[in-house]
């Protein structure tokens, strides 16, 4: 095969890789230094072709009350107003009784895709050999039974006339368990192939994590929702209407869920979890009945506005990046979460609080008022304001009807004169 310029790049020592990129992309000394300054051994060993640590801001959500306990929740996010909104929603829900969270299931599921097997026969075989298959699965990974209870459920689903799925669900304890279940599935797949002579297409965990489910709910008293113009009951009804629209319209449902994931992803990243797995699980779960819907629902009750959400949160409290990323452990401590169940509950609860704040803003002032107010700092910085100048620029921008890049440039010109 033809040799390409970047072949074997990953085998080069860090400094050589950096120099190659710097010279190929004509980076200035300052740019090269910037990349170099933020390199760490941990990251160099965590991912491939490592170049630099990419810093994202971390902040803390206040007043999140879950199952009677108050939590501070670290969130890693680049978007202004997300943390303010999550804190706002948390405070509103804390004015009721806080958020009630229950983890109903905590198994990691995976599948072995079998091609061309006679499905009833496969079902019978798997059923008759369940104990053997569990043993083979549990024996395949040295830590399965150290972490959790190991293989728990087994089944066969017909996918179409050609394909079937052998589904295995495993209790991986406090770990996310991706490596464990993949090893278990591959071992069982090889055994099935040998025993039955079937064709195995693949063996892999499923990100449709419908067995790692958290249910959260909470009530906001009406008087906490009122504003200058609208009673709390009216705001509550508008939020319930917004929630209804997210159940019937995919355009709105996607945005509604993006608001929820603002909180869930940011907290998951802070705890060192694989947020793509959570995204994938949550988004697929949102269309579990065939129609993509909002994950949360809000309704008016005599006690106030009641919100509820059922969402998969497939995470681990130990292992993987949670063990390696230095901030992950500190963040678990800040949040006061001591096991995977608590961490799942906190992450889902942040999603509900985040959603409440966004909906309240949308049906009252509109999103732009609060959001843009907090965006002004990044608008100022994006247009060249130094940290010393930001406050003065934001004050000047607040007086304008339409803050813009052009406006920042003019304000800076005046300030620097
Ligand atoms: P407000 O009503 O002006 O705030 O809200 P307040 O001054 O009354 O403060 C209420 C609480 O909010 C505070 O309580 C804080 O907890 C928090 P306190 O501590 O004062 O007792 N809070 C803040 N926390 C940290 N920093 C701040 C701050 N300000 C208030 N600077 C706010 C202002 C922006 C919070 C409100 O307008 C809001 O919640 N807006 C929603 C913003 C939002 O959702 N942003 C996400 C990006 S938009 C998006 O991506 C999703 C979306 O499309 C989803 C959807 O469509 O469903 C909207």
UniProtKB/TrEMBL annotation:
Annotated EC: 1.1.1.88
UniProt entry keywords in alphabetical sequence: NAD, Oxidoreductase
Reactions catalysed according to its record: (R)-mevalonate + 2 NAD(+) + CoA = (3S)-3-hydroxy-3-methylglutaryl-CoA + 2 NADH + 2 H(+)
GO BP, one annotated term: coenzyme A metabolic process
Pathway the protein contributes to: Metabolic intermediate metabolism; (R)-mevalonate degradation; (S)-3-hydroxy-3-methylglutaryl-CoA from (R)-mevalonate: step 1/1
Keyword Coiled coil among UniProt keywords: no
Pfam families for this protein: HMG-CoA_red
GO molecular function, one term: hydroxymethylglutaryl-CoA reductase (NADH) activity
CDD domains found in the cross-reference section: HMG-CoA_reductase_classII
Protein family: Belongs to the HMG-CoA reductase family.
Protein name as catalogued: 3-hydroxy-3-methylglutaryl coenzyme A reductase
Lineage of producing organism: Bacteria, Bacillati, Bacillota, Bacilli, Lactobacillales
């Amino acid at each position: 095969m033809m040799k390409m310029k970047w072949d074997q790049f990953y085998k080069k020592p860090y400094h050589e890789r950096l120099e190659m990129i710097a010279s190929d992309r004509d980076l200035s000394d300052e740019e090269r230094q910037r990349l170099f300054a933020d390199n760490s051994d941990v990251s160099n060993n965590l991912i491939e072709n490592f170049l630099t640590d990419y810093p994202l801001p971390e902040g803390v959500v206040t007043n999140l009350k879950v199952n009677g306990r108050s939590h501070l929740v670290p969130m890693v996010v680049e978007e202004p107003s997300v943390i303010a909104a999550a804190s706002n929603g948390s405070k509103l829900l804390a004015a009721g009784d806080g958020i009630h969270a229950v983890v109903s299931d905590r198994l990691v599921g995976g599948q072995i895709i079998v091609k061309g097997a006679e499905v009833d026969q496969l079902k019978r075989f798997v059923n008759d050999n369940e104990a053997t298959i569990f043993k083979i699965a549990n024996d395949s990974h040295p830590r399965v039974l150290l972490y959790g209870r190991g293989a728990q459920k087994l089944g066969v689903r017909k996918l179409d006339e050609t394909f079937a799925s052998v589904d295995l669900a495993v209790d991986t304890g406090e770990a996310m368990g991706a490596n464990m279940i993949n090893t278990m599935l591959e071992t069982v797949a090889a055994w099935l192939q040998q025993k039955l002579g079937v064709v195995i297409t693949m063996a892999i965990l499923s990100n449709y994590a419908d067995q790692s489910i958290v249910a959260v709910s909470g009530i906001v008293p009406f008087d906490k929702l009122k504003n200058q113009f609208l009673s709390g009951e009216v705001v509550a009804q508008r939020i319930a209407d917004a929630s209804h629209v997210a159940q019937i319209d995919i355009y709105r449902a996607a945005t509604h869920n993006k608001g929820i994931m603002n909180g869930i992803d940011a907290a998951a990243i802070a705890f060192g979890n694989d947020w793509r797995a959570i995204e994938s699980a949550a988004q697929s779960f949102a269309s579990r009945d065939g129609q993509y819907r909002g994950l949360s629902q809000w309704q008016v009750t005599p006690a106030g506005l009641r919100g509820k959400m059922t969402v998969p949160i497939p995470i681990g409290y130990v292992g993987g990046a949670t063990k390696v990323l230095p901030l992950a452990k500190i963040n678990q401590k800040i949040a006061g979460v001591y096991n995977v169940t608590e961490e799942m509950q906190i992450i889902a609860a942040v999603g509900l609080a985040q959603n409440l704040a966004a909906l309240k803003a949308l049906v009252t002032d509109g999103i732009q008022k609060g959001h843009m107010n907090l965006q002004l700092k990044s608008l100022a910085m994006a247009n060249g304001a130094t940290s010393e100048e930001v406050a003065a620029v934001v004050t000047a921008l607040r007086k304008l009807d339409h803050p813009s890049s052009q406006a920042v440039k003019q304000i800076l010109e005046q300030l620097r004169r």
